[in-house]
């Protein structure tokens, strides 16, 4: 799985976002431990707090398909600012990723910046705080 393939999957997902209120389309694509890609988009709601992020959708798709680990993730969104994951999604990814897991931030033209999870969520709280290994058995 190349970075470019994963980024293209995130960009391809963007038009499927449901964002009638913000018009801010986001696509996310996860490559799991088996090399399978799982995508998600943001889904807004008229009751604003009920909306969900693209990363959350991609994680749910990964779990549904039997994947358990985020090998790398690409997130694509437009705008002058980097479309970095929100705080909640950084924690969501923490559950299934390692500190050095690549997080690729893109826009419709391709990669803009590469981070690791630890760079975006340093000193994080995770399964090990509850005496569970980072890679939980089902
Ligand atoms: Zn989020």
Key features?
138 residues; alpha+beta; Cytidine Deaminase, domain 2; 5-stranded mixed sheet; globular; binds zinc ion
Describe the structure concisely for a colleague.
With 138 residues, this protein is an alpha+beta fold.
Helical/strand content category: alpha+beta
- Content of β-strand: 15-25%
Q: Widest sheet: strand order?
A: 2-1-3-4-5
CATH topology-level fold name: Cytidine Deaminase, domain 2
Q: Provide the CATH top-level class.
A: Alpha Beta
Protein architecture, described:
The protein is of the alpha+beta class and 138 residues long. It is 25% helix and 24% strand. It has a 5-stranded mixed β-sheet. The model has no long low-confidence stretch (mean pLDDT 95). Bound molecules: zinc ion (ZN).
